[in-house]
Known about the structure:
The protein is mainly β. The chain has one helix spanning 2-15, and strands at 45-56, 68-83, 88-103, 106-110, 114-127, 135-144, 155-166, 170-181, 186-198, 203-214, 220-232, 235-244, 252-262. Residues 1-23 have low confidence and may be disordered.
Amino acid sequence: MKKIAFSFTLLIGLILNFELQAQDNIYTDRPTQTTSAAVVPIGAFQIETGFYISEFNDFFPGNFAPNLKFQNISINNTLLRYGVSNKLELRFYQELIKSRFITDGSVSESNPLSLAPTFFGVKYNILKNNPKWPDIGILANLGGGIFDNIGTGLQTEIRLLLDGSLPGELALSTNVGWAASNEFESNSAVYTVVLSRSLNEKLAVFIEAYGAIPDRGPENHSMDAGLTYLLNSSLQLDVYGGTGLSNGSANLLLGFGLSKRFLK
């Protein structure tokens, strides 16, 4: 029943109509896992913040504890963006997380709140509004457990960002890249693909596939779908949900958030 309901959600997301927001409206990198090639306007400051919960039903290999679930709760995840020029933005990301184990519907073990991960980044727009090519950007992040030890050491990530359009007023964005942790001891290829359409000038929907292919451990392949609603030209709300497609993925993902842009 769960898979049927989720498939129906994805089908609805494909049917609805999406249009890219005009330049005078806020455009965001949340709630998708995909980062757009667009940068915030020069001198603009943007806050993108939210909450999500992910749940793993098969947290331990071999499923030796079938009644045990693991939940990762992002009490708050915040991305700060500042436009340095028409092509470059500075970024800062911080997350406040809490994890816990659920046995037979009750919390059996709960870990304290942690400030992790912390990332400093830059996004550069390489190409924009060329009729023959998609918009192209590049994203680089560097960070880790700066304010809290999360046991993953130095983390770094670099992505190529592509935004384009398809017939039928569809918008397609994709990321391909590489991520590393533990001082480059663990490496992964990462990818995202998101297909978007709008219902009207304020309400938009998306469907997305994303994942990571590490050099060790299980692969992570997932899908999500959601809605964004433009309250005004500088304020956007979002809600989304998803599920994993592989053993290394969360069985359930639910989240919501808001984004606010401040112009100079």
